[in-house]
Task: inverse folding
């Protein structure tokens, strides 16, 4: 398996010029870069444009979680930015997800834009089963919850979900092979878990059906990020 088609590099950094340097350093091996709150708050739409102008695909990870009207108006703007994918929280409910996708389709048709993939966040990979029960008050398992939210996202015509590697194969079985699973919480052998709880190695996540693995600190926290990409590349070659 070619890592370049599967890796999303999380540009979790507060400095837009550093982000550009990172894209220049790793662009030959990475096609999709993720811009989350931190970089977007520092660099705004300009950093999205600059990285897009380098021919790279952008995953805009702003995890919209609000009332339907607010989300669909934001989705319209994300579509005009030309991002490859963006995400919303599935727990925002069916009306929000359905209307968001409808608005994206409508605006892209009307303005002749490439339609971004709309991806639903299920359960954050930083949440453990104990927290899920003890703090959030759910009596069922994270797996059951993720399955329910992924099914809802599918019914609302979303393109896929964000879920941990532990739920990826179950979601694929349940929602179909063409329903995209994006998997963060990836930890190569050299990388500590940090704040992530439901972690998995790049190879295991891809073997479990993830379409994309999101890696931040596993690469950018390595002494030699390029070498980290090479090592992951070798690891997943046999998948
Ligand atoms: O450094 P690390 O590889 O843990 O970074 C994971 C990235 O994926 C972070 O940017 C985080 O915001 C993002 N993410 C996540 N869990 C989700 C959705 C996104 O960890 N459910």
Result:
């Amino acid at each position: 398996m070619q890592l370049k088609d599967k890796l999303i590099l999380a540009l979790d950094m507060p400095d837009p010029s550093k982000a550009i340097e990172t894209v220049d350093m790793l662009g030959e091996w990475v096609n999709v870069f993720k811009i989350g709150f931190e970089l977007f708050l520092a660099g705004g739409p300009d950093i999205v444009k600059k990285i897009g102008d380098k021919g790279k695909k952008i995953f805009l990870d702003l995890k919209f979680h609000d009332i339907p009207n607010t989300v669909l108006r934001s989705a319209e703007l994300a579509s005009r930015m030309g991002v490859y994918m963006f995400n919303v929280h599935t727990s925002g409910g069916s009306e929000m997800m359905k209307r968001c996708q409808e608005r994206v389709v409508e605006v892209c048709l009307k303005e002749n834009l490439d339609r971004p993939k709309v991806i639903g966040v299920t359960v954050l990979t930083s949440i453990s089963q104990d927290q899920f029960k003890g703090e959030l008050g759910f009596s069922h398992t994270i797996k059951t919850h993720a399955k329910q939210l992924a099914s809802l996202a599918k019914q609302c015509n979303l393109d896929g979900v964000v879920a941990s590697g532990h739920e990826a194969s179950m979601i694929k079985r349940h929602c179909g092979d063409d329903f995209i699973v994006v998997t963060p919480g990836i930890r190569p052998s050299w990388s500590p878990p940090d704040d992530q709880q439901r972690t998995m190695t790049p190879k295991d996540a891809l073997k479990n059906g993830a379409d994309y693995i999101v890696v931040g600190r596993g690469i950018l926290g390595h002494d030699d990020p390029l070498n980290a990409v090479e090592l992951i590349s070798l690891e997943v070659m046999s998948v």
